[in-house]
Amino acid sequence: MIPPRPASRAGRFAFWRYVRAFRRDILSANPERLYSAKMAEFRLPFLHTFLTNEPALWRRVLTEEPADFPKSPRMAAGLEPLLGQGVFLSNGALWQRQRRIIDPAFEGGRLRGTFPAMLAAGEASVARLAGLATRGPVDIDAEMSHATADVIFRTLFSVPIEDAVAGGVYAAFRDYQRTQPLLNLAAFLPLPRWVPRFHRRATLRAARRIRALIRQLVEARRISIAQGRAPDDLATKIMTMADPVDGRRFDDDEMIDQVAVFFLAGHETSASVLSWALYLLALDPVLQETLATEAAEVLGGAPDFGAVSRLKLARDVFREALRLYPPVPMMVREARCPVTFRNRQVGAGSQVVISPWHLGRHRAIWDAPDAFCPARWQGAEGRAAARDGFIPFSAGPRVCPGAGFAMIEGPLLLALIARAFRITRAPGPEPVPVAQLTVRARDGIRVRLDPRNP
Asked: 219 and 252 in contact (C-beta within 8 Å)?
């Protein structure tokens, strides 16, 4: 079964037409040949870019010589109003310090403690969907954003999304998404950091609103920590963790940056994959029934953390959705010094792109790369391909600290929903993937949800 993917660009664009197309959607602005190329070189005014699909090249950039390829400041320009100097954008010593404080909170053993909050959020999502399903087709894209935001607030601050401040952050973030393209114009121009970044007023207003609401949560938690009554959740773990090198903890401004990152990376990305995974299940009723049976067996009674490891099909479906629709379609690094890729000179300051979108569908890596086939994850060929072409969470030192979190949350919510509902496509056109902040459907994803036990 071949699910939808965007059409590729046909022919060449003039520079400013390319910029406009790129800002609307990275995926359709690029040529079809990137799905089979080992490397591609793009020369635009002010911008020399190399896209690296060859496994040896992306490993060199991400895992072998990461200090020589820091995150590109061009990409940071569009997200700085919201994320500040958070771990998603920072480089060098600042990034190293942030990871030393953040990483322990997301270690495998500590993630066990987040399971009850994830389960509660998932059950709340099922109850919410049951109410909506009686009214007709549901925009599952919007509902998964609501569900994963609930997971973040429950695991980070021990409050459900119904909390007034949490709900305010969620609403403001939806406003931010509607106004902010993935790339700011500064991504295309060699501007010093002090030059204004052409942000829309609505974007800046939404970012200020989000950060003000997060400040309320952080300041309240700081007080409860001092009083010895803070819950043992992720926020408490991170705010009380001292850097083992310099002994300092995050101050409130630093914590606000990190919470904004967690919300973007932990809510928006998971929502994207879950939406596509549910749509893929709607296209394959037989597979959906098998997954529902698995979910009923594993999640019956009072499931504990160990249940997640037994959701094997749910995990494979989630991974296949990650392969086909990686939420962050491209990662951009900057060459710090001159290097050579495949006998081509890469000058200092050149942009180096690693594309999980193209790697996940690369014709030299995957068998039937555009097909939805969760069974590939159980075969030797699929596992070998994954080593070369599956990096939705990046790789190397900058691998997403929340990768383990996502691989618990995603299969769990997918299984809970599949156990509760039969999912079918709603009438209308196929959803079209576009790269906004993440890979979402241009006009949402509408499905019908029929309760299995009405």
From this structure: yes
Decide if pLDDT at 66 tops 60.
Answer: yes
- Kindly give the pairing relationship between strand 39-44 and strand 439-441: unpaired
Chain position carrying tokens 């309240």: 220
**Mean pLDDT value across residues 56-85:** 88
For residue 325, the model assigns a pLDDT of 96
State the alpha helices, DSSP H only, in 158-311.
164-179, 201-226, 234-239, 252-263, 269-283, 285-299
Note the Cα 396 to chain centre separation in Å. Answer: 17
Higher-confidence position of 436 and 43: 43
Residue pair 431/442 in contact (Cβ under 8 Å)? The answer is yes
CB 118, CB 409: distance < 8 Å: yes
Cβ atoms of residues 138 and 420 within 8 Å: no
The answer to whether the beta carbons of residues 356 and 329 sit under 8 Å apart is: yes
Rounded to whole angstroms, the Cα distance separating 308 from 320 reads 17
Is residue 209 within 8 A of residue 172, CB to CB? The reply is yes
**CB-based contact 156:234 (threshold 8 Å):** yes
What's the pLDDT score for residue 16? Answer: 52
Choose among 83, 78, 82, 81: nearest CA to 185: 78
Which pLDDT band holds residue 368 (cuts at 50, 70, 90)? very high
